[in-house]
Amino acid sequence: MLPMLLSLGCHRNRFPDVPAGYREFAYVSNGASNTVSVLDLVNLRQDRTLQVGSQPSGMAVNPNRDEVYVVNTGTSAGSGSVSVIDTTANRVVATIPVHKLPYLIDVDPTGHRAYVANSGSNTVSVLDLDRRREIGVVGAGEQPGLARISPDSRSLVVTNRASGSVSVFAVEPATDHNRDSLPRLRAVFSGCPGVTDAAILGDSSKAFVACSGGHQVMVLSLAAAPTTWAARQDASLLNDHLLTLLNVGQTPVQLTLKPDGGEIFCSNFGSDSISEIEVQTNEVGATYAIGSKPVYSVVSADSSTLWVSIFGSDSVNLWSIDDGKMAGSVRTGHAPDALAFSADQHLLLAADAHSGDVSILRTVDKNGPALFTILPAGGSPNAIVLKAMQSQP
Predict the structure, then answer these.
(1) For the chain, is the Cβ count within 10 Å smaller at the N or the C terminus?
(2) Chain centre to alpha carbon of residue 304
(3) Given the DSSP bridges, would you call strands 336-341 and 184-189 parallel, antiparallel or unpaired?
(4) Average pLDDT of the segment spanning 202-209
């Protein structure tokens, strides 16, 4: 491994040029170290390590300001909270208390609100990110793990792991007149054991939910706005309803929507496979063998290649979507989990859960994708988010 860890200075010509003042950082939550590692992706080195609360887990980026949010899941002092990182200075600037055993966070498209599922208190915290405070909570099912806001900010989908259910809330977009309004429960759907991940289509019309305690994906139709043409033509679209349950592989754990919106890929941890779901017809196109214990995937911007972290084989495998076959495999550190592309997708980062580091893969190379280097992180890295910024001249 040592040849890959040489100083980047002699390898800079192997990467695309970036404009003066361009900065890009990866933020890696280290669950066993109570830290976030900040990685400089322009110079490919560790920038610094930030102390946060106990057992940091989920993270999210604000789309409209230079902030990253880190959920502190543990039960010791400083946890049950969200740490706010200022990405211009790379320092923690605030801590927002939430409730018991929070796990994941989602930020709405405006960047004004965030939603945190509190698995230990069966609630969802609603955060005002402008004022950096919780404005209230709403009750969910047992052990909610994820609260995902739709692209139109009208629907909040909450996955309740212990009760095997999905709660759907109506959300009013935040304005000066209703800054403290809370989501209103609209529907509850049962029959999804061990429910974990959820993916919502770009037009906010459907949610796909992984039933990780079994072998299915639940498909929900989300209520349309009364003013839309479709709702005026069909009054049934004003209500949420169950469309179908799709049979995929065992233990579906993560869902990835293609950038073009045509398919969703499901990682089936228990059957070493991925399933391709057609989102218009609500059908499983096919299920393919991919490697031992797939956990996470991302799709290239051109929707041609699926990159899958293979937890059980210390690799990231490539799947050619157009050809329907394996297109390569790249070795990583031990037990790769979360994945993230750099802004230009020239690099792919993989958090190596058991070796406490991050593998940096070149996605384009004369000999095909390859491991370029491995950067240190902390104990049990479990999530990665990226933020790119351009300094003013």
Answers:
(1) C
(2) 20
(3) unpaired
(4) 96
